[in-house]
Structure formats: structure tokens, C-alpha cells
Amino acid sequence: MSIEIKVPAMGESVTEATVARWFKKEGESVKRDEPILELETDKVTVEVPAPADGSIESISVQAGSTVQVGTILGQIAEGKAGNVSATPASNPQAAAPKPAAPAPAAPKPAPQAVAQPLTPSSAAPVMPSVRRISEETGLNPASVAGSGRDGRVLKGDMLSALESRSAAPRPTVAAAPVQSGPRANAAREERVTMTRLRKTIALRLKESQNTAAQLTTFNEVDMTAVMALRSEYKDNFEKKHGVRLGFMGFFVKACIAALKDIPNVNAEIEGDDVVYKNYYDIGIAVSTEKGLVVPVVRDADRLSLAGIESAITDYGTRARDGKLKLEELQGGTFSITNGGVFGSLMSTPILNSPQSGILGMHKIQPRPMAIDGKVEIRPMMYLALSYDHRLVDGREAVTFLVRVKENIEDPERLLLDV
Amino acid sequence: MADSFDVVVIGGGPGGYNAAIRAGQLGLTSACIDKRGAFGGTCLNVGCIPSKALLHASHLYDEATSEFPKLGIKATVELDLPAMMAHKTKVVGELTRGVEFLLKKAKSEAIVGEAHIDAPGQVAVKLKDGSTRTIAAKNIVIATGSDVMAVPGVTVDEETIVSSTGALSLKSVPKRLLVVGGGYIGLELGSVWRRLGSEVIVVEFLDRITPGLDGEIGKNFQRILTKQGMKFQLSTKVVGVEKTSSGLSVTLEPAQGGAQTKIETDIVLVSIGRKAYTESLGLISVGVKLDGRGRVVTDAHYRSSAPGIWAIGDVREGAMLAHKAEDEAVACIENIAGKSGHVNYDAIPAVVYTAPEVASVGKTEEDLKAAGVQYKIGKFPFTANARAKTIAATDGFAKVIADAKTDRVLGVHILGANAGEMIAECALAIEFGASSEDIGRTSHPHPTLSEAIRQAAMGVEGWTMQM
User: Fold this and answer.
1) Distance of CA B155 to the CA centre of its chain
2) Which helix or strand (DSSP H or E) is residue B42 part of?
3) Higher local confidence (pLDDT), A185 or B156
4) How far A91 CA lies from chain B's nearest CA (Å)?
């Protein structure tokens, strides 16, 4: 019996995805729940598991095509053990991709791997020369038609793809023809399709700027106390909780205390209403190779410092591996972003809509400070709070940031809740 | 014993017995008919295998006499030709019995007898006892191989005028051996007897030895063989051989015609090539078309012009090589079984088992020039290879030819020790469409002779590192 492989529901607001790649070929055996293909959505990549034991009977949508929730991706012949590996050479008819029932969109270059390095463990092994060219030029071999045995992409295929890429005429805008400059630069430029994640990031950020009345307020925080606390307890903490004691946990705690004092920062505007959130789901921005993602630490107010730290560590690891689940990226009442890890001294974060506040952390830098009339060198960090001025008043925003500063400079406050 | 089979293979050589084995694997009933009585065909009985046994033994003898002192070994070496021949016979016997075992394992019936195709689907076998057994066959695979090609005016008696078969079983080491034909068989057997003490002269009609091999390789190969003591007379044809009281008198004539000369020798080895063997099979009467050279004409799927009759190996076109026959056997049977068998003729290696060996796969420079293909070359001499130095085998070089534009490897040619073992890597590279860079970026163990291939591959794009 044949079972359809369908695009699964991928959570609220996700209706379409791109087929990133198939792990299995037609004729190959699969076990129930074994991942058989990867879909790339606006937010994450999702592995689609086999719905049953059997073998892949047909693949109707090739990598690069856009699909909707419920689209039939292919068929599984239930119970039939297929070939260990499909051998198109021995049976070309069966292995040739059949014309898809829902006509697949013109195959675009598979978007996900534009600059993704090819690790030796990649599902499809590539030849050494192909790997080099891919890494040097960003050309994804998956987007190149292979002329080698079993469709293998050869060095010559890559070279000719590069040649045609640089030779391709630049699309010109019909309405406003651009006067070409004195030099033709097409050969020295590279044009690649945006990944879905990048497109989403672009859309969301601009949406945020267009909607909210964004404003940023700054302050600075003396990290002496937190650093002292950390250096005193970090070994015990790590031994007991199995997770490193970082600064992020302190900031999450400090923000939650401040959010409780200034509820507007934890609220959002929905139509004509203001929705106050009596829970604290804190989004932590994580930078990955593919772009920025903001996984959410749920009910962070109820977590211990160790609980927060381990949640963040786990998200960080999985974000880099592309293993975050969609629901982990949704919701969130307030966000924290740390540009300091890259050395930023000051920045104005953009709100993660529809949230009303985002805290920007920055680099800790020793600076001379006037302490009790004397100059002392203190580890200082600038803090930024971007907020939606439609909902949050300047006084509230400044107070919020001062509260965060106080809680960090004087961590006992968190304990005493003052 | 069944008298009806899905596949009946005529010929028990590398093509035939592998066809029968593959048929068994794919669930087809099969029989393999061979008239020799010992399976394995020319290759195993009077070709590849016995010649390699003698080449190895004679090489050791030669090394012991000429190379050992240089390596600090003093030894007195004595030739025991009957024992050397016994080793050869033993190896051949073991391997032919091995083939019979393999046929049995594949549930293929081995039939000793002379086959004749009475009609498509029907084969008559004249058995050893004189009776005839008629077999019905859904498919008949002709794998009868090839036979020695004769020189007009020279009658092979396998005593003093021998073919490769006789040259493998000479009773004593001849003082003088004249080899007619500078192909791989003549050079291999000439090498055997030169090492054992014969004065060897090779007479070749063309202006070069080993036609078909890359020209540069051929030229260097000849230089090395000459240094070893083999003599060559190129652009010369043999017009007759006469028995004299002191041996044989061979009449030579320039290839373009001209004054004849005579040369005295003890043994003449005729090795000008082989021709497809199709005699007494009844092919013409059942509608199997032959080409101008007596070879069975087939399509790309090994189908002959008669329904249900197929052909593989030396009996059809292409290089007369055991492994080519073997590859065709697999492809042919897979086609019979409804699968899709295919042989990539650009990736079939060829080896000359002299010392040094010559091995090649893919296109030669001459092929590419003729086809107008732009190419680049990388070369690396074994004198610059560490392992070659340590084993005192620095003759020769590796040569990699790749497409000028795509860098795809089009041919690899190796003249050097162990070239035959190393060429498999290059065949794999060609089979999978590798570029010179792919070979250059593939780790090769140090110190080995195979590093020379890597360095030569690097040379295609000018990044040879160890020279």
C-alpha cells in the first residue's frame, strides 16, 4: 500500500516551505520516523519523518520547490524493503524523477547552502575539487546539474556553472533602465537568491520599523559586582548545575525584575487594545551562520539562574546546528540581544515585533570612572533599551533601564526583590 | 540434468564463466560449455595466468643475478626450468578447479564439449565420448574468445615455431629467440626468455612497439627494454621461416618493401595478435552477422543480429582483455535479466606485465590530438619517488592527461614498477569523472609508488610539490 508523504503542519503562521533536500532516493528503504527530507521554512529547517516503514516509491517534489502545508511530496510503498541504495544505473526508469503531480515550481538553486561549508559528513559526498570550489565561491553543488556517474557533480560542472553565472546578464528594471556605468562589473559581482530565513528577517525588521515608534535609551552598567560574584562562584556553580555561569542569566533576571515594575515594556499593542502579559517569556537573540534567530526562554521568571543558563546554552547549540523547533521561536514578551560578543560598544536594537522592548547588551570594557571623587578603572558595559514609544513613555523606559542597571550593579537587590 | 536453460554460455573463459556466475546470481538457470576440458579459457590456461607465473619467477631470477649484489646480497643462483614450469602448471590447475567450483556455486552446469548452434534457442554439444547432447536455451551467449593470428607463410608447430601457447612451455632456454610482433604478448614472453638467458630480437611491422599505448610511454618503454638487452627491428616484416640444420632462418623485408635479409634463430614466437574465434559454431546459418574481421556484430546491449543470441569478450569488437570480457559478461547478463547493463570503455585499464610494467587507462595523447580535444598533462618520474628509490626501481614515470577546460581526467599512463596494481585507482577516477585536482587532493600513503600518480595529477594544474 502506498502512503503519501505530506508537508506537515509547522505551527502558526507558517504556511509554506521550500524543499531543501531529500535524504533518500527513490527505491531506498526507510524506517518509520526516520528523517527523509528537509524543509526550510521562514524560521527553521524541519525534518520530515517517514510516516511508515517501507521504501520511497516516488518523489514528486524536487529540492528547491516551494510547497504548502499538506502538499504531497511523494509516496512510500509500505512494508516493502527497498534497495539499500537506489542504483539508477541498473534501473533508470524507476529512478528517474517522475513529473510531479503538483507541477513543481521551476527548480531554484537550493537556497540553504549558499555559504554553508560542506562538511565531510554532508549527506551527499562531493568530490574534493567540488568542495573547494563550493567553499571558495559559495556555489552550492546541489544547485548544479551533475554530468558524472549517477548525476554526480564534477569539477567541470562547477566551472561551467560559475562561468554561466558570471556571464548571465544582469536583470534590468524595465521601468527605470539603469544607465550602465563606465565599467561592466557583472563578472565581479555575485548574485544569489536570498534564503527564506534572510527574507523573513528582512521583512520582519522592516515591518517592525514601520509599525512601532521606536526609540532607544542608553545607560551604562558597572559590572564589578556581577563579575566578582561570578568569579567567586563559577566553579561551584558549574560543578553543581553542570552549566557555565554566564552574565546572560543575570541580565534575564534583572530584566524580569524591571519588567515587573514597568509592565508596559512587557505588553504589546494589538489593534486598539494593549495586551499585558503576566508571564515572562524572554527571547534571546542567537547569531547563526544562516542569520539571526531568537529562541524564547519560557516563564523565565520561574527559572533559577542555572535553569536560564542551561536553556540558553541548549538553544545556542541547537541554533548553530539548525535544530531549533518552530515553537521555540514563537511568542516571547521581551528580548535581549548581546552585540558585545562581537565587540559592539553601542547599538540601537530593533524591536522584535510585536514586543515593546528589547535590551541591547554590549562589550565589557575597562574605563576610568569617578567613584567617590576618585578615578577608578571599572569594567563597564553600555546598555541600550529600544522601546515602542506608542506604549512605553520615556520616563518608563529610562526607569526600566535604570532598574536593570541597579540590579546588575547590586545583585543582592534581586535576592531581596527591592 | 536439465536440458533447458535460461542462459547457455558457449566458452568458459573470463567472459563465459563470469556470465554463467552472474546468471546464477540473478536467478537464471545456466550452463557453460567449454571444449578445452579445463575452464578458464585462454587467459587461465595459456594466457594471462601462466605468463604471469613465468614473468614473476623469471623476474626474481633476473633480480637475483643482476640486482642482489647491489643491495648487499651475495647469492649463487641456478635455474631449474622444469620446477619453474611445474609452479606455473600448479597455479593453472588450482585456478581452473577454482572456476569449476565457482560455476557449481552459481548452480551453473559446466559442460565439456564442442558447441554448435543448430538454431536460435538450440545448442548441440558434441561431448567427449562422441555423443551429442541437445540443449534448449532461451538465450545463447557466445563467449568463444580468440585464437592466435597466423603470419602468412609461417606455420606454427609449437616446437620451434611457436605461438604464445608454445612459448609458455619451451623445454629449454633457447639461445636465440625471435619474436614476431612488438605487442604486449611478445614483449612479455620475450622478457621471460631474455631473463632466463636467451638473446631476444623483436621484429615489428610498425615503426613503434606496443601500438595503442601512449606514444611517449611506448618510446621510453622501448628504451628501457633495449637497455635490458632486448633488440628491436621496427618497420620490418617477416616473410618466411625455414628450418636449417642449425635452427631456423627467418627472412625479413622492410615494411615498405625492399631488399630481403635473413636472420638465424633457434625459436620463433609468432605474436602478431589474435583473431575472434567463431569456427564451427554455425553462426552464419542461424543469422549471426560477422564483421570484416570475423567478429560477431552486436548492438550496445551485446545482442547479435539473431534473436536470443548474444556475444561478449574477444569474439566481438574492442580490446582483447580478460577484464573487458568480464565486464561485458556482467552487463550482457544483466540485460538478459531485464536490468540495464553497461560498460564504460573509457575506463578499461590495460597492463603490460614486463619489468617495469606499463599500465594505462583512458585516452592517449595521440587519441586526443586526433579527436581535437584540448588537454593538459602532468608527469612525474619515479626517480623522484622515495619508494622507488628504496626498492631500486626508478625506471619510468606516471603521466596524467586531463581536459584543458574541465580538468576531468581523460587518461592515465604509467611506466614503472607495480603500474598494473596502481592503475585501478585511475580507472576508478575516470569512472567517477574525477578531475586531476581530485586525485591531487586525495591522500596517498607515503612512501609508496602511488604518490607518483598524485604528483603527476598535481602537475596537470602546475602544483606538483615533490619535484
Assistant:
1) 24
2) helix B41-46
3) B156
4) 6
Q: What angle do CA A286, A292, A294 make, to 5 degrees?
A: 55
Phi, psi of A136 (to 5 degrees): -75, -30
Query: What digits encode the pLDDT tens for the residues B286-319?
Result: 999 999 999 999 999 999 999 999 999 999 999 9
Task: Print burial letters for B285-300: b (CB count within 10 Å at least 16), e (below 16).
Answer: ebebebeeeebbebee
Q: How far is CA B172 from the centre of its chain?
A: 25
B435 and A127 within 8 Å at the Cβ level: the answer is yes
pLDDT value for A114: 37
pLDDT band at A55 (very low <50, low <70, confident <90, very high): confident
Give the span between the Cα atoms of B452 and B393, in whole angstroms. Answer: 13
- Phi-psi region at A362: left, alpha or beta (left = phi > 0; alpha = psi -120 to 50): beta
Alpha helices in A107-265 (DSSP H): 128-137, 155-167, 196-211, 224-241, 248-261
Query: Which residues are B242's β-sheet partners?
Result: B249
Indicate the helix (H) or strand (E) that contains A396: helix A394-409
Pull the grid cell for residue B172: 629449454
Residues of A in contact with B432 (CB under 8 A): 127, 148-149, 152
CA distance A137 to A162: 8
- Name the average pLDDT for chain A: 81
Residue pair B141/B27 in contact (Cβ under 8 Å)? The answer is no
Nearest to A293 by CA among A113, A41, A57, A63: A41
* pLDDT, tens digit (0-9, with 9 covering 90-100), for B98-117: 999 999 999 999 999 999 99
- In our burial notation (b when 16+ CB lie closer than 10 A, e otherwise), range A170-183 reads eeeeeeeeeeeeee
Residues B182, B158: Cα–Cα separation, whole Å: 19
Q: pLDDT digits over A314-358, tens only? A: 998 888 887 888 788 888 999 999 988 889 999 999 998 889 999
Residues in chain B with CB shorter than 8 Å from the CB of A127 are: 432, 434-435, 438
Spell out the long-range contacts of B384-389 with Cβ–Cβ below 8 A and sequence spacing 24 or more. B384/B452, B384/B455, B384/B466, B384/B467, B385/B447, B385/B449, B385/B451, B385/B452, B385/B455, B385/B466, B386/B446, B386/B447, B386/B451, B387/B447, B387/B448, B387/B449, B387/B451, B388/B416, B388/B417, B388/B449, B388/B452
Q: Is the ipTM of this complex over 0.85?
A: no
Distance from A88 to chain B by nearest Cα, in Å? Answer: 9
CB contacts, 8 Å: A92 with chain B = 340
**DSSP-assigned letter for residue A99:** P
The confidence score (pLDDT) of residue A85 equals 42
Is A241 marked active-site?
Answer: no
SS3 of residue A281 by DSSP? coil
Question: If we measure between CA atoms, which residue out of A147, A140, A8, A148 comes closest to residue A68?
Answer: A8
C-alpha A55/C-alpha B45 separation (Å) is 47
From CA B425, how far away is CA B442, in angstroms rounded? 11
The per-residue pLDDT for A365 is 92
Q: What is the arithmetic mean of pLDDT over B191-209?
A: 97
Mean pLDDT of A264-269: 93
Q: What are phi and psi of B6, to 5 degrees?
A: -70, -40
CB contact (8 A) between residue A89 and residue B340: yes
**Can you tell me which residue has the cell 611506448?**
B218
Alpha-carbon span A228 to A225, nearest angstrom:
5
Average pLDDT over residues B157-162: 96
pLDDT > 90 fraction of chain B, expressed in percent and rounded: 97
Greater pLDDT, A148 or B53: B53
The H-or-E segment that residue B162 falls in is strand B161-162
Q: In angstroms, what separates the C-alpha of A133 from chain B's closest C-alpha?
A: 11
Q: Do B339 and A154 touch (CB under 8 A)?
A: no
How far is the C-alpha of A406 from the C-alpha of A255, rounded, in Å?
A: 11
